[in-house]
Automatic annotation (TrEMBL):
Transferase as UniProt keyword: yes
Catalytic activity: L-threonyl-[protein] + ATP = O-phospho-L-threonyl-[protein] + ADP + H(+); L-seryl-[protein] + ATP = O-phospho-L-seryl-[protein] + ADP + H(+)
Organism field: Triplophysa tibetana
EC number(s) on file: 2.7.11.1
Name of the molecule in the record: non-specific serine/threonine protein kinase
Pfam family, one: Pkinase
Amino acid sequence: MGHALCICSRSAITIDNKKYYFIQKLDEGGFSYVDLVEGSHDGRFYALKRILCHDREARQEAQTEVEMHQLFSHPNILGLTGHSFMERAGKCEAWLLLPYISKGSLWSVLEKLRDKGSSVSESRILNILHGVCEGLKAIHDAGYAHRDLKPTNVLLDENDRPYLMDLGSMNKASMEVRGSREAMRVQDWAAQRCTISYRAPELFSVESHCIIDERTDIWSLGCVLYCMMMLEGPYDLIFQKGDSVALAVQNPVSIPQPCSYSQGLQTLLSSTMVSNPQERPRISWVLHQIQNLQGSDGTAVDTNRV
């Protein structure tokens, strides 16, 4: 009886004719909040992402995020359980109901290891990276790019299975830029939607006539790999000090030495973080190299990217 009274006292929302009770806040950003909720019909926990849509453009962006989730049913991409758009007093909120992954983000796991003075084993790095790449491959094969891959946008379950999340920055994999005005539009969009310390070099100063493709994600993937190896992103300190990340990404990534990880893993990292996007590999090549490293002692990586 006491439990029932407790349930009734909690605030509740309804999505797709199912009731969910608020448990606690999990996170908040500039225009979104994530709450932990419990389904009254199944007793399971879910993450409710509430996006504040301050104008028509923001509402369309939220709708696009819903559509991106609905495109995929993949073990390494966070699924969408339900959604709703709520209109209140002239304001709109998009509600995205997502599975709750209790272990949290890859970044939170890495932070705890760093605080303990520990590190991530190479086999664990390869296992997580393999799952991230499988999710990315599904996105790229569908003709899209994630555009904001970073450790906080990767969730890990109790078995270390990674889930790509926050699909709000996703768009078509290939973007043809025609003229300086369009280049500036893409550059401004990237500044708003692609986290600076994980942003590919070609998005900092967009050329007037170019094609930007899904290999922006390969650069970000390299940054994620670096973060798993060093427990901080390659450009985190540069950004925190107020120095120019845009300038730093024009140079080859520097791997601190001595490095406890295999030469094969270091070579894979260097291969993904190539400033010239045309020299960067695609996701199938990266997956192949990971599989090679998982099946070997990690001392060599084939440099043929065909």
